[in-house]
Amino acid sequence: MDSTTPRVVDIHTHMYPPAYVQLLESRNSIPLIRKFAGAEAPRLIILPAEAESLDKSTSENPGKPSSHLPGRPVTTHYSSLSQKLHFMDTHKIDISVISLANPWLDFIAPEDAGETAKSINQEFSNMCGEAPGRLFFFATLPLTALPETLLAAVGYVRSLKYCRGVILGTSGLGKGLDDPALVPVFRALASNKLTVFLHPHYGLPSEVWGPRAAEYGHVLPLALGFPMETTIAVARMYLAGVFDQVPELRMVLAHSGGTLPFLAGRIESCIVHDGHLVKEGKVGPSRRTIWQVLKEQIFLDAVVYSEVGLKAAIDASGVDRLMFGTDHPFFPPLNTDEQGEWESVTWNAESVRKALGEGSEAARAVMGGNAVEILMLHEDD
Ligand code: URA
Ligand code: ZN
Question: 48 CB under 6 A from ligand 1?
Fold first, then answer.
């Protein structure tokens, strides 16, 4: 394939390499993988909102039908490279930028984090090496480790041939991404030209979902908690001035920026109407608005499942900053054939076509051209 052929690139696609699966299998509290009596496959239980249902299903009825068990079945789609490639072929995806899924290494003891990160990143690197040109990856940082270990990890992942950035949750070093202690890490990432892929995991406190939340499955934490978490994390970074302190920092926001494209105007209005910020001189003529930051330092994925959301993302950041993604292996097919077509993928691709026109140059850019340029995917050497 020559460099002018349009390519489809999936920048939001996860894996749990076998060593990470073993780590989750060895645990007794979430995140974990557990076998339940009568269930056809072990279950992956990772979301904070699932902790309560895990406790109940352990104590109440171990033989429950799997639809009532917490979490989701761990299929081979989570850890098998050949399955990832099969999925890519099924959906005509030429290149995937794979990343560890949540909750990454957030739960690892500080003394183990450096080595664990190294071996996970090495596994990702090896997988990419097995399908050269088709796979790149966002590495995982040992955020719970000592600062020197963490900074050394940035240098290490930079040296891995297929690494194009790092995936990051919203907890940072435990105090969020507006923590001044993270600024040196952001500086190191920026100076090594490593893009941050910001991805949610923690959602919102479970009380906000009300006493009947368990009846609604994963809908509230995934559809609303995840996007709000991203929105809050980036708003905090913006208010703390992180984007000005590290102007070379480049961030791709999962799920089209949560609700940022829709709420940026409201954030702006609240800032200029805040007497406290005005008094402290934080609202002056030299301030870059959040709209500017969205167009200068932020990129968005196209994982929003609708033309309406996609149009807001395009208006907020620009069509040249938007990149297609699938969120594989989450949201599997609605029928049971996991080897066939996944509707969650088709819906995202259809939204791009509807928003930008079938076969248009802009649609081709969002489906792959932008990612090739932004993440330097033509350089596989
Ligand atoms: N998508 C993810 O990436 N993680 C989840 O936990 C659920 C959906
Ligand atoms: Zn994801």
Answer: no
